[in-house]
Specification:
420 residues, Rossmann fold, 2 domains, six-stranded mixed beta sheet, four-stranded mixed beta sheet, 35% helix
């Protein structure tokens, strides 16, 4: 049996993907692929793919193909760009769970240790990440900003986002009774950095995301080959559709739909109907009543998008004059001490809370019911990394304002996405 060296395995794996799986192959061709033995196995920073010679030597040619496809999906799902300060090892585990079932369905061969869990097969990486944290007795906290080149536990990084002495395949430390899940031991997502090792600016993040969108659109030309994962179809369709301003959608929700100003379609003029047989809407100014705003405090919700949302909210409140606005901060639970109430005409303030954890939304609905807060409309600013949606929709309308790069939609209510 002839054993190929690492360079030949890499070359043959690229050719195989291009010929047999052109959707994956075209993305691989548009990405920088280079040897980098500071990574433990194979990794991506969202634009480039790095491979370790010893790792490639240790696996078969078809497993190299599978790991390449694995890293391609990390790129197309923007996993590196969506890490945004989360606990590195937990984020890698969540991302692996999110895509391995796609590769298995596509017939790819993956190295030993690949993570699979049926429960997670329909979840985004954010949702899986939050679910893992929720299931742990003492989940590790995200790294504190401003530590320079330090990792999640304060240890120096190796220059690729991995902590020295800890590759993507190392066993994380346990925490309390619920331990950190064991990573699969190969493949990694590393946070993108500038050449000098500093963090990307928001503008650079947006440019990187736009580059991935273009890669996805270019790869989608191979849709007829049936090679495109169904999980990406909706994202592709959205990229091809005309853009609808999220602020217009927000405005429409707050006003109650497409009715003209000054009219309400909630009740008909019953007197006019009985005397003339004509159904008219009630003639009165439309008030939007009591608005409740739930603000996701998880670490993945970024201030820039949240600021956009609250700026638009204040504009609409000034225009529509709701009777009251209640702001409820939440992450894994509701921070009742931080709930704020604003009377008609007051400016609604965004709540700033640092050191934030995962996302659970059920406590918001429980808090509203338990406290008896009046609510005519509920607006939820969130990263959509939610695994505990209520089984039944509430009686009041709900608007989910997605402030993350994901395209996720809630199972009820209306979901809009803030322009990134």
């Amino acid at each position: 049996m002839i054993t190929l060296d690492a360079d030949k395995k890499i070359a043959k794996a690229k050719t195989y993907l291009i010929l047999k799986h052109p959707f994956y192959g075209s993305t691989l061709l548009s990405s920088v692929v280079r040897e980098d033995n500071t990574v433990m196995t194979m990794a991506t920073d969202g634009s480039s793919i790095f491979w370790n010679r010893a790792f490639v030597d240790s696996i078969t040619e078809q497993e190299v193909v599978g790991v390449f496809a694995h890293e391609v999906l990390h790129i197309l799902f923007k996993h590196a760009l969506r890490m945004r300060g989360r606990v590195h090892q937990l984020w890698n585990i969540a991302c692996d769970y999110a895509i391995n079932h796609i590769l298995k369905r596509g017939g790819f061969t993956l190295p030993e240790g690949a993570l699979f869990k049926d429960e997670y097969s329909t979840f985004t990486a954010e949702t899986i990440y939050n679910k893992i944290r929720e299931d742990m007795s003492e989940p590790p906290e995200p790294p504190t900003k401003g530590k320079g080149d330090e990792g999640d536990d304060g240890q120096p990084n190796d220059g690729q986002g991995n902590q020295q002495g800890q590759g993507s395949g190392d066993q994380p430390s346990e925490s309390g009774n619920g331990s950190v899940p064991k990573p699969q031991g190969w493949g990694d997502v590393i946070e993108p950095k500038k050449a000098d090792g500093s963090a990307l600016s928001e503008t650079e993040y947006k440019l990187a995301e736009a580059d991935v969108d273009q890669k996805l659109l270019n790869a989608s030309q191979h849709r007829s080959r049936g090679d495109i994962p169904t999980e990406l179809h909706g994202i592709i369709d959205e990229l091809l559709e005309p853009t609808i301003l999220w602020s217009d959608q927000f405005d429409r929700f707050m006003k109650g739909g497409d009715c003209p100003d000054g009219w309400s379609d909630e009740k008909i003029n019953i007197v006019r109907y009985r005397t003339t047989g004509v159904i008219d809407p009630t003639i009165k100014r439309r008030g939007i009543g009591h608005v409740v705003v739930a603000q996701d405090q998880s670490g993945s919700v970024h201030d820039s998008e949240l600021k956009k949302g609250f700026t638009e909210l204040n504009y609409l409140c000034e225009t529509l004059q709701p009777e009251s606005v209640t702001v409820i901060p939440f992450d894994a639970s509701v921070n009742a001490d931080k709930v704020q109430f604003f009377d008609q005409g007051e400016e609604v303030e965004k709540i700033n809370i640092k050191g934030r954890g995962g996302t659970c939304v059920q406590p918001v609905f429980d808090y509203i019911e338990e406290t008896g807060i009046e609510v005519d409309r509920l607006v939820i600013f969130t990263d959509m990394g939610i695994f505990d949606y209520p089984k039944e929709a509430p009686h009041y309308p709900v608007l989910w304002v997605n402030v993350s790069p994901t395209k996720s939609e809630a199972p009820f209510g209306e979901t809009i996405k803030v322009d990134q």
